[in-house]
Write a structure and sequence with these properties.
Strand content of chain B: 15-25%
Strand content of chain A: 5-15%
Largest sheet of chain A: 4 strands, parallel
Largest sheet of chain B: 5 strands, mixed
Largest interface: A-B, 21 and 19 residues
Number of helices of chain A: 19
Number of strands of chain B: 10
Oligomer: heterodimer
Radius of gyration of chain B: 19 Å
CATH superfamily of the largest domain in chain B: ATPase, nucleotide binding domain
Shape of chain A: globular
CATH topology of the largest domain in chain B: Nucleotidyltransferase, domain 5
Distance between the termini of chain A: 65 Å
CATH architecture of the largest domain in chain B: 2-Layer Sandwich
Helix content of chain A: 40-55%
Bound molecules: adenosine-5'-triphosphate, iron/sulfur cluster, magnesium ion
Order of helices and strands of chain A: HHEHEHHHEHEHHHHHEHEHHHEHHEH
Number of helices of chain B: 8
Structural class of chain B: alpha/beta
Helix content of chain B: 40-55%
Chain lengths: 437, 262
């Protein structure tokens, strides 16, 4: 690590970032807020969230040289990396940003021009498109020293990160998690825990920092507490009216995904939880008129979050739960400080996308009951095969068992070229009509 | 006397139906949609009024449906074709539990609950595979008229396997089958089979319950109906003019709404 880079990073952290935040705050004060006809008052925490994420992306530019930089997949056990002081960057989070900023078609096209298939996940295409063009809604991304992936979400990340390892000519560490067809086995656990222990040597070499068991346990505890608090945040949505919409949580999830294992994420969810509990106590709903409560399946359609948020609120419908946002809280109870490596392996390998359809079915049944769901919107995402396969069977089974109405939207997470406004509108309107009694 | 109108502006055809207080149909017209939805709706409604011998002010309420439903400024309400085909099919065949509507650009399978209420539905994804448009392209390629498809298919002695339902791929497949001198009847039956297999997976997704009723223009194609009946394992209801079922449903909803409004 270089001394100059370290100094520059410190300067930006202590002076640059606070100055930027202060400037933002000053700008915001000038805008008076009007009461919205559809939505409850905006959350105070939202400003803090924006600050955190902006600061994270801002400082990322100065991280190379000052910190070892790792690019990490959303389902990788990042708690381990924290011990070595890695500055972590999440290409999937960046992909979501590209989607929300309507830049995905351009970046995907750039990747396609280099021979990547249109059928490849659009997070991967956005990221590779950034590699080829240097374009990003976040300005400049931190050049990585390490790639850290886990195939507990899909096999795509393995090959996507292999491509990155080739382009950047840097090491890739892969955490391989066998798919859970039935019950997790003893040999699976041993295999996975062994990998985590083996990673320590290369991580020490790449970061120049020695492994420290106490630090590791502290990081695990912070990660655990963060995920647990995130789970509590989501649980406030069981109340009627729900203090949040799922569209809010698509943004509020950014820290638990990409800053997990750091104090800032944990502190943020504490603040958010407090604000939400206060809202619940005062009966303030995120959607003013919450007539029907819905569940969302699959990753967000990032280019449509705002439109959908308005559309559903206009119909008095609020999404109160999603299998997607739930994924970062779902398995955290397996974490056990007395058995750190094995329990970390278990926590990460039993996530929804690495688990069988029976598991998904019973999870969905449970969420539908717990959150008093009236209807289900299923996003069939062209990008995400592991999430989208089996959805029609799940739809049918949930209809048979719970008589819950549902609709499938064929679209994509970021690539709006795979989305048809016209067809989606007909499906959604028919769904609204079917939900009216 | 007050009358109620339903207009279904589909991607290929526009229908207008007028009913009276007793839900008796007093007019029904079918016209091509062509390039302008609003104009198509206007023309179809005028033609239906003329057929009914009625004047515009006698229409107590108008409901629009189909892709062009939002482009009908004179309609009191827009309702999706899912709900309308469900209502129309339920009215014509009260035992209907499953409706299969295959139109020009969309195929839909609708499950009805008590009273004809939609409880579940599924639609084809973006491409034209498994829709009427697919059959139109293939018919043109084979030099057959749309209304010849059914009789030709039923006269087939064999069936040629078509491996793709993608319109573009299937078209080139048909070209090579023609080049190999495969009989036209056999190719057409193969094309119908491809469509039916595709629709069948949608039918299975929502399930078969009670009677099955087929609506939309492709229901006029007896070749498709026959193969679908084979799959479903029971006879399928087809109204003598299946294309107007959506518009009829819209007219029925107009009547219900007018009543609810007093
Ligand atoms: N006489 C006929 N014989 C056989 N098939 C026919 C006949 N007339 C129409 N069709 C089929 O019906 C299709 C059109 O159906 P329909 O009029 O229900 O479509 P639409 O309502 O305009 O379309 P959509 O509902 O998809 O927007 C044509 O593509 C054709 O395949
Ligand atoms: S969206 Fe799906 S395919 Fe893409 S990286 Fe995430 S899990 Fe993998
Ligand atoms: Mg139609």
């Amino acid at each position: 690590m270089s001394f100059a880079a370290a100094m520059r990073y410190r300067f930006m952290k202590d002076l640059g970032a606070p100055a930027l935040m202060a400037a933002r705050r000053a700008m915001r004060k000038k805008r008076p807020s009007r009461p919205d006809p559809l939505f409850g008052p905006p959350l105070k925490s939202l400003a803090r969230l924006k600050e955190i994420m902006m600061r994270h992306y801002f400082l990322a530019r100065y991280a190379p040289g000052a910190h070892p930089v790792a690019w990490v997949t959303s389902g990788a056990p990042v708690e381990l990396l924290r011990v070595f002081g890695f500055y972590t960057f999440y290409p999937e989070n960046h992909g979501a940003m590209c989607g929300a900023a309507h830049m995905a078609p351009e970046l995907c096209q750039a990747a396609e021009d280099h021979g990547y298939s249109q059928d490849l996940c659009s997070y991967a295409r956005c990221d590779l498109g950034h590699y080829f063009t240097g374009k990003s809604p976040a300005g400049q991304l931190p050049k990585p020293d390490l790639l850290f992936a886990s195939n507990n979400i899909c096999q795509t990340v393995t090959y996507w990160f292999k491509a990155l390892a080739h382009y950047y000519d840097i090491p890739l560490i892969l955490f391989d998690t066998p798919f859970n067809f039935d019950q997790i086995t003893e040999s699976d656990l041993r295999y996975m825990a062994g990998q985590l222990e083996e990673m320590i040597t290369p991580l020490q070499r790449i970061s120049g920092v020695k492994f420290d068991q106490a630090k590791f346990l502290a990081s695990l505890e912070l990660g655990r507490a963060t995920s647990e608090t995130w789970g509590q945040v989501l649980q406030t949505m069981r109340h009627r009216p729900s203090p949040l919409t799922i569209f809010d949580t698509f943004f509020h999830m950014a820290p638990v995904v990409s800053l997990r294992g750091l104090p800032v994420a944990y502190d943020y969810y504490q603040t958010l939880l407090e604000e939400l509990r206060d809202r619940v106590a005062r009966g303030i709903g995120a959607v003013k008129l919450e007539r029907k409560r819905l569940m969302w399946d699959n990753i967000a359609m990032w280019y449509k979050v705002r439109d959908f948020s308005n559309l559903f609120a206009e119909h008095g419908m609020n999404f109160v739960v999603a299998t997607y946002t739930n994924a970062w809280a779902e398995t955290i109870q397996y974490l056990d400080p007395d058995d750190p490596f094995r329990s970390l392996a278990k926590t990460y390998s039993l996530v929804i996308l690495n688990n069988n359809l029976d598991h998904r079915l019973s999870l969905m049944e449970r969420l539908i009951a717990d959150y008093q769901v009236d209807g289900l919107v299923i996003h069939s995402a062209r990008s995400c095969k592991p999430y989208s396969v089996g959805q029609y069977d799940l739809k049918r089974l949930l209809m048979e068992r719970l008589a819950i109405p549902s609709v499938v939207i064929e679209a994509d997470i970021t690539d709006s070229r795979a989305y048809s406004e016209e067809q989606t509108r007909t499906r959604l309107e028919a769904f609204f009509e079917a939900l009216e009694d | 006397m007050s009358l109620f109108a339903g207009i279904d502006i589909g991607s290929l055809s526009t229908e207008a139906v007028i009913i009276d207080q007793q839900a008796a149909m007093v007019a029904a017209v079918i016209l091509p949609t062509e390039a302008h939805s609003t104009k198509a709706a206007e023309t179809a409604l005028e033609a239906a009024l003329e057929q009914a011998g009625a004047r515009r002010p006698e229409l107590a309420r108008i409901v629009a449906t189909g892709y062009g439903r939002v482009s009908v400024p004179f309609a009191h309400k827009a309702v999706t074709e899912i709900t309308c085909h469900g209502a129309g099919a339920h009215h014509l065949f009260p035992g209907t539990g499953t409706v299969i509507d295959i139109g020009g650009q969309d195929s839909k399978v609708i499950r009805l609950g008590p009273g004809g209420k939609v409880v579940d539905f599924t639609m084809n994804d973006k491409c034209a595979a498994g829709t009427g448009r697919f059959l139109e392209v293939m018919a043109a390629k084979l030099g057959a008229g749309l209304d010849e498809l059914g009789p030709l298919s039923r006269a087939a002695r064999r069936e040629v396997a078509i491996s793709s339902v993608c319109t573009v791929f299937a078209e080139s497949e048909v070209v090579s089958l023609v080049a190999r001198n495969e009989p036209r009847e056999d190719i057409i039956r193969g094309l119908h089979r491809a469509i039916v297999n595709r629709v069948w997976s949608m039918v299975r997704a929502v399930g078969v319950e009670g009677q099955v009723t087929m609506t939309g223009g492709v229901a006029k194609n007896s070749g498709v109906v026959e193969l679908l009946e084979e799959k479903v394992g029971q006879p399928i209801n087809v109204y003598r003019e299946p294309q107007i079922v959506g518009a009829l449903g819209a007219a029925l909803l107009a009547r219900d709404q007018a009543r609810a409004l007093g």
